[in-house]
Amino acid sequence: MKKGKFKNFRKEILHNKGAFFSLVFLILIIFTSILIGFYDGDPDAINISNMLAKPSAQHWFGTDELGRDYLIRIIYGGRVSLTVGVLAMLTSIIIGTTAGISAGYFGGNIDSFIMRLSDIFSAVPWIIMVTVVSLLIKKGIFSIVLVIGMFSWMEIARLVRAETLTLKQRDYIQYADFIGTSPWEIMRSHIVPSVLPTIITAATTAVADAIMTESAMSFLGIGVQAPMASWGSLLQNAQANLDNAFHMAVIPGVLIILTICSFNNLGNVFRAVAEPGSRAGESNG
């Protein structure tokens, strides 16, 4: 991000209370997730004598059905959810950006093939595709990241393709093509930097979508497997104890909602900074 746009981003964050709260919340969640790595205790340690204890000074969020400290489980779960969200986002961004630039720049049969493939992936409900593929491959974080990334690149590809089609008509790109610059060099040196604001904006949305998808997968029992926990799996496990430990479902549910909303808020700020006209368009709409 250029220096001028960084100043605009900082100004936008300070001006927008919702965006400021979102940034502070995400920094707190990420910082806590990093610090938990220095925790000496075992988050999976079972204490049958202390099952489903109420929140107290010793256990701020109480304990779960196996007597494990729920606060520690929540923090470790956030670490897993954020890790999956970021890695899945990077996967979908790489696939989507590559597909979008290739389709927009080369056009013709390549464009038709990539767009038809995107239409096919978009037409089938994601939960069906994710469920089928996740049942066929070995379960684990890597598998979850791969599955989410493979089925969430289509919108990014369409956005990048649309911008590439416009950029391809610019004089400097046509001149670079005229003097014999290779297509890969043109895409690397001219097109990728130009579509970077769109990619950054899409990345924030992709992280939020990936966290939501992972939570849904874990809630359905096809995501993170025990004893590892994510916010989605904690939400799923809490179903059996809603009567006497309602907070076990509320806490991860609220954290999922706040995290997704925070990433979306920051994405709106990035878009407002990268495309100043978007704010006017939103206010007029």
Please give a structural write-up.
There is one protein chain. With 285 residues, the protein is an all-alpha fold. It has a single domain, classed as MetI-like (MetI-like fold, Orthogonal Bundle). The protein is built from 12 helices and no strands. It is elongated, with a radius of gyration of 22 Å. The C terminus is likely disordered.
Q: Fraction of residues in helices? A: over 70%
Q: Mean pLDDT score, rounded?
A: 83
CATH second-level architecture: Orthogonal Bundle
Strand percentage lies at under 5%
**Rg:** 22 Å
Helix/strand order, N-terminal first: HHHHHHHHHHHH
Largest sheet: none
Number of domains: 1
CATH superfamily descriptor: MetI-like
Q: What low-confidence regions span 5 or more consecutive residues with pLDDT below 50?
A: 278-285
Shape: elongated
Please work out how many helical segments DSSP would assign. Answer: 12
Topology, number of strands: 0
The CATH C-level name is: Mainly Alpha
